[in-house]
Amino acid sequence: MKQLMNVTFAPHIRSSMDTFKIMLFVIISLLPAVIISIINYGLYALTLYAVCIISAVFLEHIFCKIQGRKTTINDLSAVLTGLLLALTLPPGLPLWTAFIGVFFAIIVGKMVFGGLGQNPFNPALTGRMVLLISFPALMTSFQEPLYSNIDALSGATMLGNAKTDLSAYGIINHINIDYHQLLISAGGSLGEISPLALIIGGLFLMYKRIISWHIPVSFIGTVFVFTFILNSIDSNITISPYNHIISGGLLLGAFFMATDYSTSPMYWAGKILFGIGCGILTVCIRVYGGYPEGVGFAILIMNAFTPILDKFFRPKVFGDRDEQLF
Amino acid sequence: MTEFNLKGGIHPDAHKTSDISSVRDFTIMEGDDFFIPFVQHIGSPASAVVNIGDEVERGQLLAECGAGLSSRIHSPVNGKIIDISTVYHPAIGEVSGCTIKALNDDTSNFKKLDGGNDLSDLARLAGIVGLGGAGFPTYIKLNPNKPIDTVIINGAECEPYLMCDHALMRAKSENILAGAKMIKEHVKASVCIIAVENNKKDCIALLKQQSQKYNIDIISLPTKYPQGGEKQLIYSVLGRIVPSGRLPADIGVLIQNVATVNALYEAAVFSKPLFERIVTVAGEVENAANYLMPIGVPVERFLERTGNKYKKGHKVIFGGPMTGGSVASLDIPVIKTTGGVLLLKNQKKHKILPCIRCGKCSEVCVMGLIPRELEQNFLHNMVEKNVDEKIMSCIECGCCSYICPSGRLLAETIKAGKKKATIFLAKKKENK
Q1: Do A184 and A307 belong together in one domain?
Q2: Which end of chain B has fewer surrounding CB within 10 Å, N or C?
């Protein structure tokens, strides 16, 4: 043969959507929420984001070096984990606390299992839950957003308000949120204050086919149906389904955390069950549990069911039928 | 439009830009060498019936069917046999074959076939094989041992870049309809459908104009890869599912590619054996077009005569970019199953990262498999598990590798896994 050329296997073309781009698109879709939180909480919020992201990248890099393997920070997943963790933190959290959260998110939540794709639990939520359990006071001291104009709210979050109302007076002071208040709603964690920004981000990810509709729709749908039933039985059990959906990080969790590739089921039936499970657990914790907020715990608990959901709900092989038919 | 929507599949950039206004002729020159492999089909090699030094006419028989599944090979040129030993085949390397030196550039006549009682006999005599890419001898398909009720003519051409079938349907729509009618009558089917992807609206309109006369249905399919896969096409058109490990004939369907139909028509009406086909040249070339190519022309000369140039560092692919094989040398000849010759830029060596469990590979898999698991099973040498997970159902379309954001070699690994699984199944059968 005259000339030996480069020979490769088919297929010879590949989709341009690689891991880096997926992470980049998720980060882009979170930007509206980030910007609105910075507008409302000022420079300190920006510092908190910066500390979380930089320390996440730094810790992942160091850990890879200690393990003696090539650094994996180039895939942007550490940036995303840092950003997601920051979005779940209260705006006034001391920076050292945030660093501890990042440490647990990156090292304990992700790297000890082998890095991206191997972790059984959502890293950002792991970090947040460690902080919530270790520093409950710091983690639940919320400020009111600068530009929020929801009156009738004595505390910062609607869910926290409802819990204190219930224990103090036995009734709930129902708050009406207008649609024009969706851009900047009640206070809470950095990422919680703008339901509209989160919905736009989530829809963008669905449009880009980075996430499928199954988990967000079944998650949010279940929360709506469950709280609607509870509310119709007695309006003093919990706040309205609409307020449930736009508060307490449900949108953040349903669009950006429950859909995390590594920790959620891969096939559609499993995804829907996963979403329903998350929804039921969220409402149970919010209404009957000790914490006012349940999305994080619900997702982490359902993460544990992911392997079993993947095992039992597999796609059907095309043409796989009983041989007796022929 | 059909009501049955194919699950999975991908939408790669089409790149269907080659000139289809006409099918161009390839000019043969005196003294050209033609390398004719005796394996251009699935099955055993054909055995030579000519000797070194013989002068052969265009269309003359060079090699008769070998034992078992096989097909005949005819000369594409008036020439002299200068060697009978081995030549290169695009996919399987060195095979038995002959080399012919062209004595003149005459392409006006060819040696006609004689005999042929019915269509399947004619297909055997003319050496017709499936021109869609697989190269299954057509005479076997035309002799089904089960009753056939529907004939589907595959004009989907879902691979990017390739336009050979598109050009053919534009140029020879009448032949295809007439050929389809012949097949329908031959297998006594009640329905005959020509299925075309809806990115070829001109072909659909052209075929529809004349289809009344031949009583043939034209169906437009949504554009999606791999719409033209045999089992996928049957599902999209009829909603029937071919069971795993079975053939379309088992559910009463016969599938033929449009190019095969045209070859059958020409064999039946003009007694013309199969020694040329339409080939797309596309990709990183100056003149992307479709040529009526005699078989056996090495790529280098093909590119040169069509006004294109091989640039160093490009990949040469025989067939489409999703399933075609890249070749190692410019001496490799175009054969019956070569639908296209593509020059593609050598991609940067992409990084292979760990799986991130996005599930996209199983989302796009048209066979409902889980490529990431099949890959892992293969890498951990779990052949039996792969068999249980129906690795043999894989149609090797390459969608999983295309979509994988981590750049994992899924389809490539599964192909290797299928080889191992075949050996495993054969051994299991022996032990029983």
Answers
A1: yes
A2: C
- Which of A112, A139, A166 terminates a domain? The answer is A139
In terms of domains, do A118 and A207 share one?
no
> Count of domains in chain A?
2
Residue B257: φ, ψ to 5°: -75, 150
Same-domain check for residues A164 and A104:
no
Per-residue pLDDT of chain A (326 residues; tens, 9 = 90+): 556 677 788 888 888 888 999 999 999 999 999 999 999 898 999 999 999 999 999 999 999 999 998 888 988 999 999 999 999 999 989 999 999 999 999 999 999 998 888 999 999 999 999 999 999 888 888 887 777 766 656 566 778 777 777 778 878 777 777 777 777 777 788 888 889 999 999 999 999 999 999 999 999 999 999 999 999 998 888 888 888 898 878 999 999 999 999 999 999 999 999 999 999 999 999 988 878 888 999 999 999 999 999 999 988 888 876 544 43
Residue A33 neighbours by CB under 8 Å, 6+ apart: A87, A191, A194, A197, A198, A201, A252
Each residue's pLDDT tens digit, B255-286? 999 999 999 999 999 999 999 999 999 988 88
Tell me, what's the ipTM?
0.88
Cα–Cα distance between B396 and A183 in angstroms, integer? 48
Which tokens belong to B428? 């299991």
Q: Given an 8 Å threshold on Cβ–Cβ distance, is B405 in contact with A21?
A: yes
A271: closest CA of chain B, how far (Å): 11
My answer on whether A86 and A171 are in the same domain is no
CA distance A221 to chain B (A): 23
* Chain-chain contact of A8 with B315 (C-beta, under 8 angstroms): yes
Q: Find the closest chain B residue to A11 by CA distance.
A: B322
**Domain assignment of residue A266, yes or no:** yes
C-alpha R_g of chain A: 21
Return the bridge partners of A30, or none: none
Q: Which domains does chain B have, with CATH numbers?
A: 113-270 (3.40.50.11540), 360-431 (no CATH)
Closest CA to A249 of A93, A150, A134, A124: A124
* Assigned token pair, B82: 């200068």
Task: For residues A220 and A279, state if they share a domain.
Answer: yes
Q: Are residues A232 and A116 in the same domain?
A: no
For the record, the structure tokens of B120 come out as 């399947």
Rounded CA-CA distance A169/A147 in Å is 29
Residue in B322, B353, B369 nearest the CB of A317 = B369
Searching chain A, which residue's CA lies closest to the CA of residue B342?
Answer: A12
Does a structural domain hold residue A5? no
Which one of A75, A110, A139 terminates a domain? A139
Check whether residue A234 and residue A305 sit in a common domain. yes
Nearest residue to B331 (alpha-carbon basis) of B163, B97, B70, B108: B97
Q: Do B321 and A13 touch (CB under 8 A)?
A: yes
Contacts of B324 in chain A (CB under 8 A): 10, 12
Chain B 238-277, residues with CB within 8 Å of chain A CB atoms: 241-244, 246, 250
Residue A152 lies in a domain: no
The whole domain housing A59 covers 19-139
Q: Do A117 and B365 touch (CB under 8 A)?
A: no
Statement to judge: residues A85 and A209 lie in one domain: no
Domain presence at residue A147: no
B317 CB neighbours in chain A (<8 A) are 10, 12
Residue A160 distance to chain B (closest CA, Å): 35
